[in-house]
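Hello everyone,

My group is preparing for a crystallization screen and wants a predicted model to guide construct design. The compound we'll soak is pyridoxal-5'-phosphate. Before spending weeks at the bench, it would help to have a computed complex in hand. I've included the protein sequence and the ligand's SMILES below. Output in structure-token form would be ideal because that's what our pipeline reads.
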Amino acid sequence: MSATETAIASAEAHSAHNYHPLPVVVASAEGAWMTDVEGRRYLDLLAGYSALNFGHGNRRLIDAARAQLERVTLTSRAFHHDRFADFCTELAALCGMEMVLPMNTGAEAVETAVKTARKWGYRVKGVPDGMAKIIVASDNFHGRTTTIISFSTDPEARADYGPYTPGFEIVPYGDLTALREAMTVNTVAVLIEPIQGEAGVLVPPAGYLPGVRELTRERNVLFIADEIQSGLGRTGKTFALEHEGVVPDMYVLGKALGGGVVPVSAVVSSAGILGVFKPGEHGSTFGGNPLACAVALEVIAMLRTGEYQERAAELGDHLHRELGLLAGGGAVETVRGRGLWAGVDIAPALGTGREISERLMEERVLVKDTHGSTIRIAPPLVISKEDLDWGLDRLRTVLSA
Ligand SMILES: *Cc1c(COP(=O)(O)O)cnc(C)c1O
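Reply:
Good plan to model first. Here are the tokens for the complex, ready for your pipeline.
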């Protein structure tokens, strides 16, 4: 057996089968490239679902992590540490907000947003105890906890995990009328992704997000933007909502915030909203740890320059121009997305998204399929134009075979 086959057989024997990875075993990576255990190089067009916006082994991030590793890695929030205040201050500033509540994974940050909205509903808005409702969108992806999958519409993500957490109302994504009709006096928040990533990089109709903003403001309901995947440069701006000139009440951030080095997530909001928490009412052993703060501070410093957002915008225009040409040719049905982020619906006659991903892997390009015949393209924002063009060439090869 090859080194690849041995590693895969062993993983299949001893790990739960909750993923179906492509048959490639990565041993090292740099920038937009990964090298497998047999020395083959692959172009990474997934970037860890946007956790790797700054590329693999980014020098600034690795240096920041290494320096912090030598000083102090964990204190727990029982004590202050010397990176915490800077992290909160800088992240709040990047978001144009006032307060930060750090967690680790995206799902934990979404859970934190849900708890914040409910507590705000009872303490500030005056919703009767136990009555708070949060409105979410169909085809959402907000994570994998039991509460979060309770409001998923994806049967795979949800089946067999009941009983489900009540208090959520699902409306069609992009439908303002449905949202308006679902609101009651007990609605505390609307939780949506400005662009739905896992659903296939769905961009809502123009005017939808400003409409959500107007409606939530009018009804004294919190607008919670899950920018875990869409935020921090991916779409060509720091936040996807910026394209619509919309400022939410709360950002939920994760993925790229940890620079592909450590999991870092956060809820970022105003003092009036995050101020609802008192000591002991919420927490996390690892949330806001020194290593996480050191890496995230470097991420924030990199985003502050605007150069990654600009890169994503420029290369994104190029990506969408090239994919648009493919869409005319019959092999590709639809292309969606914004910036360096695209959902590509392949004509089903050419194969499933999985099959296309496997053929691309043979051409040394790594992508991930989602829902049937869709593949998504989200390279690290540091990818060179030449490498991106090389990847697009491989895609053309696979689609014309
Ligand atoms: C990935 C993702 C999450 C969950 O993040 P985890 O770190 O995997 O828990 C939540 N919301 C969105 C939009 C995501 O893309």
